[in-house]
């Protein structure tokens, strides 16, 4: 064999090795990229399927899941904390889900099943309700958890501040607070914050604090009872759904426009009522956007990406919803 031929053979072998190495590297990279998308299914544990707020969260979750090619399922406990705990346990046992989004009815009750889920390798994002015993922070109280939302005490403080503003120069100013559910720790923390803030104004008299719930029907009944016992009430505060019911009770009593209404939740109805002057204000939560954010963090975490421990949803929309601050915001869900 001539020296020139030998050189050419060596060059060909070297070139083939480079090509094979490149192909092997490409195949390995492609395989790695495919396996990095581990999240195929996520589970959402919401307050209740019949609740418009939870449906807004679900709409955002579905939007993100569909975009990422991920299956999503809504587990409905219908505001039952014990049932929600069982649903989380059962979903963990199936091994079908790589990520959970938990909108807890009781943030403390769900801690053990969430810890078990994370031990099983499931990534968990708490949404709206802090997971743990503290309701004055959005920092995760369970190691490894991610939280998307606002502290209920921040929410309550703002509602109370809006109540003080609605009272203006009235002395006394009689305020009725239509609480959510007295059995829910989140609602109790919010209620305490509302009352504390209202009491910063010596002119404010809290004449009633009753369960208003999260439907128009429960709000209507609560407001009727308040008006019967306190016909001189000046301000009513409650969930947006409850305040929609309260509006009807106030209208029936011939007091529409004489009682300032403040809703907790930025539904399309609540936002419209503030803009047209029927309500004094509402606490705005861009809940569909919050659900979408929670889903994205859950999917990213499940796929091995680094995600922040918490996300303050007040970054999505100014929560203080008055005529002056709402601007073009229209609400992301309907009651």
What would your notes on this structure say?
This protein is α/β, with parallel strands linked by helices and 335 residues long. The protein folds into 2 domains: 136 residues, Rossmann fold (3-Layer(aba) Sandwich); 132 residues, Rossmann fold (3-Layer(aba) Sandwich), CATH 3.40.50. Helix content is 47%, strand content 17%. The protein is built from 11 helices and 12 strands. The strands form 2 sheets. It has a 6-stranded parallel beta sheet, sandwiched between helices. A 6-stranded mixed beta sheet has the order 7-6-8-9-10-12, with helices on both faces.
Our count of domains comes out at 2
* Structural class by secondary-structure content: alpha/beta
Q: What is the terminal-to-terminal distance? A: 88 Å
Number of helices: 11
CATH classification, class level of the largest domain: Alpha Beta
Total beta strands = 12
Calculate Rg over CA atoms.
Answer: 26 Å
Helix content: 40-55%
Please name the CATH architecture of the largest domain. Answer: 3-Layer(aba) Sandwich
Mean pLDDT metric: 90
State the strand order across the main sheet. 2-1-3-4-5-11
Q: What is the fourth-level CATH superfamily of the largest domain?
A: Response regulator
H/E topology pattern? HEHEHEHEEHEHEHEHEHEHEEH
Strand content: 15-25%
Sheet of most strands? 6 strands, parallel
Give start-end ranges of low-pLDDT stretches: 1-35
Kindly identify the CATH topology of the largest domain: Rossmann fold
Tertiary shape? elongated
């Amino acid at each position: 064999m001539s020296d020139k031929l030998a050189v050419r053979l060596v060059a060909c072998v070297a070139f083939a090795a480079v090509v094979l190495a490149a192909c092997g590297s490409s195949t390995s990279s492609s395989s790695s990229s495919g396996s990095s998308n581990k999240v195929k299914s996520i589970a959402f544990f919401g307050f209740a399927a019949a609740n418009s707020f939870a449906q807004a969260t679900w709409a955002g979750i579905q939007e993100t899941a569909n975009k990422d090619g991920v299956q999503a399922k809504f587990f409905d406990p219908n505001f039952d904390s014990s049932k929600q705990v069982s649903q989380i346990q059962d979903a963990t046992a199936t091994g079908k889900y790589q990520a959970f989004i938990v909108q807890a009815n009781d943030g403390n009750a769900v801690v053990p099943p969430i810890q078990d889920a994370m031990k099983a390798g499931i990534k968990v994002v708490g949404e709206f309700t802090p997971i743990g015993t503290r309701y004055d922070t959005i920092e995760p109280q369970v190691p490894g958890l991610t939280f998307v939302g606002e502290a209920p005490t921040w929410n309550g403080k703002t509602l109370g501040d809006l109540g003080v503003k609605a009272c203006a120069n009235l002395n006394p100013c009689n305020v009725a607070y239509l609480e959510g559910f007295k059995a829910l720790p989140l609602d109790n923390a919010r209620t305490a914050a509302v009352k504390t803030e209202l009491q910063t104004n010596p002119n404010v008299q809290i004449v009633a604090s009753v369960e208003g719930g999260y439907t128009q029907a429960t709000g209507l009944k609560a407001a009727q009872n308040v008006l019967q016992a306190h016909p001189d009430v000046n301000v009513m505060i409650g969930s947006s759904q409850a305040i929609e019911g309260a509006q009807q009770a106030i209208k029936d009593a011939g007091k529409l426009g004489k009682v300032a209404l403040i809703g907790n939740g930025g539904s399309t109805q609540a936002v419209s009522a503030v803009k047209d002057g029927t309500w004094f204000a509402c606490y705005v939560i861009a809940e569909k956007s919050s659900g979408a954010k929670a889903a994205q963090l859950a999917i990213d975490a499940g796929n091995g990406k680094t995600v922040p421990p918490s996300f303050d949803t007040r970054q999505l929309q100014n929560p203080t919803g008055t005529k002056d601050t709402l601007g073009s915001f229209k609400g992301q869900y309907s009651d």
